[in-house]
Amino acid sequence: MIFANQLIYWYLNNKRDLPWRKTKDPYLVWLSEIMLQQTRVAQGLPYFIKFTEAYKTVFDLAKSDESLVLKLWQGLGYYSRARNLHFTAKYVADELNGVFPNNYKELLKLKGIGDYTASAIASVCFDEPVAVVDGNVYRVLSRYFGINTPINSSKGIKEFKELAQTLIDSSQPGTYNQAIMDFGALHCKPQNPLCDTCPFSSSCVALEKKLIKELPVKEKKIKIKKRYFNFLVVVTDDNQTIFEERIGKGIWQGLYQFPLVETQQSISEEELVNQEGFVSVFPKETTLSLFNTKDVVHKLSHQHLYTKFWIVKTSKVAKKTISWKDVKQYPVPILIDNFLNQYLNTKK
What we know:
Layout: H1 2-14, H2 26-35, H3 41-54, H4 58-63, H5 66-73, H6 80-95, H7 104-107, H8 115-126, H9 135-145, H10 154-167, H11 173-186, H12 205-208, E1 225-236, E2 240-241, E3 244-245, E4 256-257, E5 260-263, H13 269-272, H14 276-279, E6 286-290, E7 296-299, E8 303-314, E9 322-323, H15 334-346
Parallel strand pairs: 1-8
Antiparallel strand pairs: 1-5, 2-9, 3-4, 6-8, 7-8
């Protein structure tokens, strides 16, 4: 209990002023927690504000078209979060009459909600004493207790969850959970933690044994896959282009893109025009030019995309087209959005 008391005391004096901290509405807390997965608060905050202005209740979000949700999410990444968010909003609105489950076990059943999010909502909104364990919590606990079990191993996940559960202040679980997350984000940081002013400096194992930089431990990362993307940026004589929705379970499902030719390596113009994906789209003569002289490297968690944007001027194409003036209305990956901003600026 001494650990929890010190942590909460630190939190009450140092906590960040965030809009979702001022409510126990499970809709708003859920929204913030989904947005902040794999995302820094500074990046997620503007999106939270935009979403809560557009969708004041879970019913508003449920009624929205998925394409509009994805457009509002654009730039935040990990788009499966947005699709799951929309799916769950519809389920809560239609099947649960807009009322979120009030406990950890039932919250876990909702799509897109895992252990961490269920723990956060249950503790903050319903005072259920279930401990959150995220990257910040792993770091604080591994350093303070000197634990070198890999945090991304099955053993580590179980060990840290059990330890976290023994430490939680059951009288104020929401406050405790927010305290340990904020402490990890602001004080016990990944790089250059503030050990000199740390309230736990006299009892921190990592500080005593000079293991701050070594903890927490992670097992070796998955090998990064390289992929080579060639986007065919169509410009017809009457200022039309081709914009296609990505389908399937891969990256960017539900977002829009130009026709894509994926290859095993970076290719030349001569090689591109002989690709089946090029020939099938352009039955007539085209004028081809490369927009970016160097491959744009877009880094995702397990893959790096080496991307070329080919400007294809033509009179006719074999696919449905849209007007260039409408392209910015569609939800797109940040890679495409960055290109559009550059390309459209050259046309002004």
